Amino acid sequence: MARTAPVCAAISPPAAVACITTALLILASGCGCVAARAAAPGGAVPTSSLPPECDRYSDLLGPLAVRLEAWRAAGGVNASEGKRLRQEIEGGGEGAFVSIRNGQVHVLVKREGFQSKTYGALMLLHRLVSRFGRKHLPDMEFGIHRGDVPKPGAWMCFCGRRGELPGTWLYPDFGYYAWPEIMMPPWEAIRQRTQEVVERWPFAARSNKMFWRGGAGKHINTDVRGKLLRALENRTDIADVQAIPPFDVLLQRGLQGFTPLWDFCKHKYILYTEGNSYSGRLKYHVLCGSVIISHPRKYDTMLSALMREGRHIVTTVDNEWSDVAQIHSRLETNPQLAESIGRSTALLANQLTAALCALLVVPRARF
Fold it and tell me: Which of 211, 213, 271, 360 could serve as a FRET partner for 281 with CA atoms 20 to 30 Å apart?
């Protein structure tokens, strides 16, 4: 995600997510996930298989490696667990079971289920192999769960419950590829459009109102979003928050009132809310280099697990958003602080998406 290294600056965006995916797989293989080779001597996190251009991102693995150590402490992941995951998919579960042997990737079982989320997750793995070749892939077997809510066991999931260890293995969500069912442009197209807006709207020129648009209906946990609306919908002096109708209704209206993801970047302060579990929009918000203000989160994605409080994100004291106005006031009276948080968030985004060594880190340990 960062553009500081000449060698990584030339890597295509899908490759940064690729570096993290590879590292995550390698971390997972170090735990025996599921039928992988032995861990590195002394219990160290194996990193020698990462491509040289990804070595500079090894510091990002710290928060992700915590899950590895927790799995080791719990006895690791054995072959019987791998068998269970595969049988669950074969029995009608949704997701994919993947085997990597001698650099060859085999999708042994795949059940798409709702929308094309499993396909998107597998395409990230394909991009990983295409970018870095096969020699960096560890021998292992693993199951990818395509659901929004993490499953118990050694699944690789798009999110995990915060504070739950050993928890699920984190895997980059399908949106890093595409989400065509809601007419979401491919990841790289959104990133490019976002960059265009960011260049036209430097931080100081952006609106100083806290901005949020989001669904609050079918299939979405509306509790924290409803509380946000109650806290701020009448505070038009400091906030611009609105619920949007379901996407099929928006289409019927010709997308009237719809705000594209890149236009969020015209605001200094972006409010983030979880949905059914995590919300996939966080990875788009960080591209803006704005200050992200969130309620206390229940779930972590590979991205949010790397975000530090006060450096990449600012969190309210509760789900009632009781101190959100005070947070806004503090940032407005200290514009240097606000802009520095925005810069740090943009730097993290660049490390994970512009240099694109990120996807390789996932196969090593997580998503």
Answer: 360
Mean pLDDT (whole number) for 193-216: 94
Tell me the C-alpha distance between 39 and 57, whole Å.
20
**Cross-strand pairs, 105:** 100
Q: Are 275 and 300 in contact (CB under 8 A)?
A: no
- Please give the model's pTM, rounded to 2 decimal places: 0.85
The answer to whether 17 and 61 are in contact (CB under 8 A) is no
Measured at the alpha carbon of residue 350, what is the angle toward residues 265 and 130, in degrees to the nearest 5? 120
**Residue whose token pair is 């002096």:** 237
Residue 354, pLDDT > 80, answer: no
Q: Kindly state the tokens that stand for 329.
A: 């006031």
> In Å, how far are 19, 59, 125, 253, 289 from 32, measured between CA atoms?
20, 22, 19, 51, 38
Interatomic CA distance for residues 204 and 208, integer angstroms? 9
Query: Distance between CA atoms of 164 and 336, rounded to whole angstroms?
Result: 35
Is pLDDT of 154 > 70?
yes
Which residue in the block uniquely carries the two structure tokens 């997972």?
A: 28
Residue 243 burial (C-beta neighbours within 10 Å; 0-12, 13-18, 19+): middle
| pLDDT, tens only, 302-316 | 889 889 999 999 999
Helix (H, G, I), strand (E, B) or coil at 39: coil
